[in-house]
Amino acid sequence: MKESEILDDLARVLSDFQGREYSDLIGPETRFFADLGLASIDAVVLGETLQAHYGRPLPFGELMAELGRRSNRDLSMGELASFLARHLHD
Questions:
Q1: Which of 10, 21, 76, 86 is the most exposed place for a label (fewest CB within 10 A)?
Q2: Which residues on neighbouring strands pair with residue 20, listed in sequence order?
Q3: What is the per-residue pLDDT across 60-74, written as a single tens digit (0 to 9) for each?
C-alpha cells in the first residue's frame, strides 16, 4: 500500500475522530499533538481504529517507544503513514 493512500485513509479517519472535527487539510506535515490537538490516549484509540480499518494487528508499541526516545515527541502524519506502509505490505 502506498503512503499517499495511507495518508488519504488517515485524513478520513482523523477528520472526525473522537468527536473532534479538524477542518484543515491533513497532510504529511500535520502533527498529531500540536496540530490536531490530540492526547496520548487518542494515540491508543487511533491505533485500535487503524488496526480495525486494515484488518490486522500493527506494532504501535514500537512506534510509541521510538517517539519516547526522541526529543520531539510529536508524530507527523507522514511518519505515521511511513510506519503503516512498512507494516501493511503483503
A1: 21
A2: 17
A3: 999 989 988 999 989
CA distance 41 to 63: 14
15 CB-near residues (< 8 Å, 6+ apart): 21, 22, 23, 26
User: Would residue 18 be called left, alpha or beta, if left means φ above 0 and alpha means ψ between -120 and 50 degrees?
Assistant: left
Q: What are phi and psi of 82, to 5 degrees?
A: -65, -45
Contact 7, 81 (CB under 8 A): yes
Stated as kind and residue range, the H or E segment containing 17 is strand 16-17
CB neighbours of 50 closer than 8 A, spacing ≥ 6? 9, 13, 58, 84
Distance, CA of 27 to CA of 41 (rounded, Å): 22
Rounded to two decimals, the pTM is 0.90
Contact 85, 2 (CB under 8 A): yes
